[in-house]
Amino acid sequence: MMTGRMGVLKDLKVSKKLTISYAIILTLLIMSCVVSIVDFIRLGGQIETFYDGPFTVNDSASVINSNFERMQKSVYRSISNTDSEIVKEAITDARNCAAIIQEELPVVKAHFLGDQQIIDRLDAALAKLAPMREHVLTLASENQKAEAADYMEHNNILAIQEAQAELNSLIESGNKKGETLVSGLSEKQAMAVFTVIILGGISVAVSVVFGIYITRGITQPVTELEQAARAMARGEFSAVRVA
Is 235 a member of any domain? Predict the structure, then answer.
């Protein structure tokens, strides 16, 4: 097919040959740019999805997890201490941690891309634990340490384990989704680079082919004229052939 096109070009003037070759090369370059832009737009969309999804969820889940652990430590501290100031500080800290967890939960709900039932179960476990925790803190504030410890052992512990299990599932699910998106980002990036290289290579190859063809189209007639002129100079008129 390329040979047929070259045959058509052979009968054209040099200026038209140059125009056609430059037009083809320019078209290939434009195609390369368009494909690259489309690939990078898709790549940007994937990055945005990663940021709005797993990145945000994992950040909030990390805050929830750290405050959940801190909250339990504060509850234990309120039970184990006899100093009223330390008990008051521990109770305040536990309630502050619970408030932070409640602030972060809507963020997780809005951006979580995994199984929404995990969020529902976590929310339910935290809601179940809240009144139990408040009861323990109330008993601790009233210096009823034994009653607080006994109530916590028979009620809070199971609810804490349930909430922690759902929180671990949330973090694990977020990490897996993040890994999947990062893997997709790497594949799209490699594909975008590959496409640019291929189209760029085709553009260079076409440029070289047209360059060689047009150069030969200019130099061959000149060579023919030179040889004919030399033959005429030698008086060999029968050998003169100019196509």
Answer: no
Domain count, the chain: 1
* Alpha-carbon separation of residue 136 from 123, 125, 163 (angstroms): 20, 17, 17
The continuous run of DSSP H or E covering 112 comes out as none
Give the tens place of pLDDT for each residue, 53-79: 677 777 888 888 899 889 989 999 999
Q: How many Å apart are CA 46 and CA 78, to the nearest integer? A: 47
Question: Is residue 241 a part of any domain in this protein?
Answer: no
Question: Is the predicted pLDDT of residue 131 greater than 80, yes or no?
Answer: yes
Which residues make Cβ contacts (< 8 Å) with residue 97, sequence separation at least 6? 67, 68, 70, 71, 74
- DSSP track, 3-44: HHHHHHHHTS-HHHHHHHHHHHHHHHHHHHHHHHHHHHHHHH
Cβ-Cβ contacts under 8 Å for 111 (sequence gap 6 or more)? 52, 53, 56, 57, 60
- With tokens 């003169």, the residue in question is 240
CATH code of the domain containing 52 = 1.20.120.30
Instruction: Read off the DSSP letter of residue 57.
Output: H
Cβ neighbour number for residue 171 with a 10 Å cutoff: 17
